[in-house]
Automatic annotation (TrEMBL):
CDD domains in UniProt: McbC_SagB-like_oxidoreductase
NCBIfam families referenced in this protein's UniProt entry, alphabetically: antibiot_sagB
Domain spans labelled Nitroreductase: 70-226
One matching Pfam family: Nitroreductase
Natural source organism: Lysinibacillus xylanilyticus
Protein name: SagB family peptide dehydrogenase
Species classification: Bacteria, Bacillati, Bacillota, Bacilli, Bacillales
């Protein structure tokens, strides 16, 4: 039974708009002891049916944005570049922060301007605590979300080599407002938004001379021990 502002309705016929997402999400989670996800080697060539069309002339990069796009690569070892608080602040401001204070718009596009993705960070650098921080873009600050030892945080990342990066960025969501508005479409939209943020972080880090790797291989339940109300959808290591 559902209470309505004006009346009480006997049957709630509106379906739970999060059912599909919960089912899909739960079926694709990697666990330390078990995974239903099978990663297989693919030996086949990618098919591309040849068609005639308009030839597009390629040329060398000639300005900063083109050179940045050309140079972006997944770099699986940390750079030797020293990273300070200002670098982290700049990275978050320009790649994932509010760039239009008046309208509260961010540096990346978002479905319905709802900004459903929240960034959590672990930072193994001088001056930072053994905490999971949450980036608050509204105040542009790193909030001390919860205590967490670096060693345990590292275990979220499956690849041991990638655990060595000093900064780990966790892309998470509690789906606030999103499913009320977009229902079953939400999961796609959320992941699309996350892709934009990750690309901003990749490119801006490349510009700073800092290495990054985007990671689909992570143990979400390790993260949820600390942040139970958010799903973990993507991880980046930066350093
Ligand atoms: C969604 C996604 C998930 C990825 N997951 C991993 C990962 O778990 N581990 C890893 O080493 N690289 C990962 N990568 C990086 C890809 O392997 C890499 O982008 C690809 O090999 C192309 O190389 P490039 O990024 O240097 O152009 C991922 C990339 C994307 C977009």
């Amino acid at each position: 039974m559902r209470e309505n502002k004006n009346s009480t309705v006997l049957w709630d016929t509106e379906v739970d708009r999060s059912v599909l997402r919960k089912k899909f999400h739960s079926k694709t989670v990697s666990r330390r002891d078990y995974t239903s996800v099978q990663i297989k080697k693919v030996k086949k060539q990618r098919k591309w049916e040849a068609k005639s069309g308009i030839h597009l002339p390629k040329r060398d990069a000639k300005n900063d944005i083109e050179r940045l796009l050309v140079s972006r690569r997944t770099r699986r070892v940390p750079s030797n570049r020293e990273i300070n608080l200002q670098d982290i602040s700049d990275l978050l401001q320009f790649a994932a922060g509010i760039t239009d204070e008046k309208h509260q718009y961010f540096s990346y596009p978002s479905p319905g301007a709802l900004y459903p993705c929240t960034l959590f960070l672990s930072i193994n650098l001088a001056g930072f605590k053994e905490k999971i921080y949450r980036y608050n873009p509204y105040k542009h600050q790193l909030e001390e979300y919860i205590d967490a030892s670096m060693k345990r945080i590292e275990l979220i990342v499956i690849d041991e080599g990638l655990r060595k990066f000093p900064i780990k960025i966790f892309f998470a969501s509690d789906y606030q407002l999103l499913e009320d508005k977009y229902g079953e479409l939400s999961y796609r939209l959320l992941n699309q938004e996350i892709g934009h943020i990750a690309q901003n972080i990749s490119l801006y880090s490349e510009y700073l001379g800092i290495n990054t790797t985007c990671i689909g291989g992570f143990y979400e339940e390790q993260f949820k021990q600390y942040v139970p109300n958010f799903d973990l959808l993507y991880v980046m290591v930066v350093g």
